[in-house]
Amino acid sequence: MSPLEDIENLAQLQGLRVAICHYWLVTWRGGEKVLASMLKLFPNADIYTLFYSPSVCGPHLVGHQVYSSVLDRPGVRQYYQKLFPLYPMGIKSLVLQKDYDLLISSESGPAKGIANPKKVPHLCYIHTPMRYCWVDRQSYLERVPKRLRGLADREFERLKKWDLKTASAPDRYVANSQNVAERVRRFYHREASVCCPPIALDLFEGPLGWNPEGFYLSFGALTPYKNIDLLVEQFTRSGESLKIIGDGPERPRLEALAGPNIQFLGSLETSQLAQEIAGAKALLFPGDEDFGMIPLEVMARGIPVIALGKGGALETVVENKARPESSSGVFFAQPTLDDLSQALAQFEAQKHRFDPDWIRAHARNFGEDRFLTCFGNEVTSLLNR
Prior knowledge:
Helices cover 37% and strands 15% of the residues. Helix 3 (54-57) links the parallel strand 2 (46-49) and strand 3. It has two domains: 10-198 and 367-383, Rossmann fold; 201-366, 3-Layer(aba) Sandwich (Rossmann fold). Helix 2 (30-41) crosses helix 16 (368-383). By secondary structure, the protein is of the alpha/beta class.
């Protein structure tokens, strides 16, 4: 079944002239998967972004015109995360090239600040207010050389003030989770409805691939707030097998800390990724995430999740201590070795009671068709207001 089949106003949506401003296009992760789903609703949309890597993202954006900012230069693009003081200048350099019916900002950076002189209806799909300004600044500052931390902190504060000034630009906010909707309310003093990100429907097809006697798995970008160092310390001590899928700036430091029982697999092709997931006993998810698509992508294959009981995981992972067969995982309260160890022990004691079919059925509630219907309705409501 096509994820578009249940959208009553599909022809109207697909006929719109749409501009989508996505923060940057240099990796293909969760935010970009959401963008790809949006493009199914708006197949003729133009895309605006701070940085664009054609080799990484181009194959996913065939048929779409991509406009990048003045900051997007060879030899500079690779440092995109360190150029945050220049983001306002970069977003100001983006000029809408055509007359549009709808402007969508896909936001976890400064995308919502794109100029809109013709007052095109503007919907902001917000993955999170900028973490390095609002919720996680300290962990980013800890990775900055000490002599530069004061300067970096002042630049984060300056960017935060600019971000707040642009909070009134969208006509409507749609958040990826209740967690992020609460941040929008707290930081921007705006209300946001919720459309959870899309989980690809093909993940729910085929046999379930759970191995309760397999290895533990970590999967995602290796960045500071993901707390992967907690896993490395725990498993280096215990000697249990752990496989870590993903790349990022934290990888060299984490590899230096890890024991021989921990494998870093980097980024994997889809077929290899599916093979590794099928051999796992559980996914470990130790970060305080905005939403977190990866737990659901793994649960779609019937595999339980051991997650930090904060943030988006509280909206996707179900824990029922009395009836693990009606659970999709186990929580630990704080990102500490003691709490993680207790959760691992609880999981090991109950692991054979988890039901892969129940876990997959739960994850199916977040399928791409649900997102497309929800988001399409939000766009229609905005345009018809």
